[in-house]
């Protein structure tokens, strides 16, 4: 019975982790891509590829090819058995709607010992279990990573230094990953979000068919996107300053904890993750999890996913008890409501590996939005209510080369 290649080929063939293949060529070019289309029956909000995407399926277009479609090319070079370099370019929908190529990875690595590797440059941000290959659709059993977890940190790379220590103990392989860096992300209307002093400590333990993952991340966030709004609160004196300091995203720390596991004996698999994201700002605290299981029947893999995303806290705040501040109070509540995600999801799908390097996936998602919030949807319109379930239909063709 054929075993899918996404657990091995999707990683090693693309050179995503530090390469340990001593016989690798001096230069190697690999790539991946996804051609996909998504339909949503919610016409007052969009289902997008992430929080930083401009448009998606629903309000912008009933059927959208922008959500999942992407392509990536990676050039890797082994200058010496110990000294290597990687450059990866990806093209997917950005915040401005364009598909301009972006530098996803650009780093050099040095194997101090066979177990100890140091990388400098732009590297993967290892926040979640599938961070190394979250953009490689072929490496995922489902159409896309679970939004309930992976949307908590839409940033996928960092500029800095990371250290990887991998040790084998008989049948056990343990990989410790420590990263320190920074990241500047473009936002709409010319604003930027800077993540400084980003630290991630991640550990992956593999034993036979079992994989266990845990990570802790934190970063200092800085942005002026809402500075005029919160400065208006500060103009009301100490009360306004206290409220602005509590909700303003500028100069705050984001902390994320993630736990994951996978069991894959070959004929079937089950995988899941849990994550908690917390910031003392209007973003607040969110907790998400998912559990996916599937059965492999020759080239076919039917699968089922259950997932949940919950926001901690209320959807509104009384604001300042000053009549002149009422418009600001209303704006604050709109901000809190618009950035609160609360939903459950059930998805079923089928993967067909019709060639060794290509897979067709068909998936149906049912989003049950709670408390009138947007869940994982974005670009909500004035007529959006968030009370009715949302149905999504997705079809993708994933490939590697």
> How many individual domains?
1
Main sheet properties: 16 strands, antiparallel, barrel
Structural class: mainly beta
CATH C-level label: Mainly Beta
Shape: globular
Number of helices: 5
Mean pLDDT: 91
CATH fold-level name:
Porin
Can you tell me the CATH architecture? Beta Barrel
Strand order of the largest sheet: 1-5-6-7-8-9-10-11-12-13-14-15-16-17-18-19
Order of helices and strands: HEEEEEEEEHEEEEHHEEEEHEEE
Radius of gyration: 22 Å
How far is the N terminus from the C terminus?
A: 24 Å
| Low-pLDDT residue spans | 1-22
Share of β-strand residues: over 45%
Q: Oligomer, anyone? A: single chain
Supply the CATH superfamily name. Porin
Number of strands: 19
Describe this structure in words.
It is a single chain. The relative contact order is 0.15. The chain has 401 residues and is mainly β. It has a 16-stranded antiparallel beta barrel with strand order 1-5-6-7-8-9-10-11-12-13-14-15-16-17-18-19. The protein has a two-stranded antiparallel sheet with strand order 2-3. The longest helix has 13 residues.
List the helices and strands and how they pair.
Blueprint: H1 9-13, E1 27-40, E2 46-47, E3 57-58, E4 63-64, E5 70-78, E6 83-91, E7 102-113, E8 116-124, H2 147-150, E9 157-169, E10 172-186, E11 192-207, E12 210-222, H3 227-234, H4 238-247, E13 252-263, E14 268-279, E15 284-295, E16 300-312, H5 326-338, E17 343-355, E18 358-369, E19 390-400
Antiparallel strand pairs: 1-4, 1-5, 1-19, 2-3, 5-6, 6-7, 7-8, 8-9, 9-10, 10-11, 11-12, 12-13, 13-14, 14-15, 15-16, 16-17, 17-18, 18-19
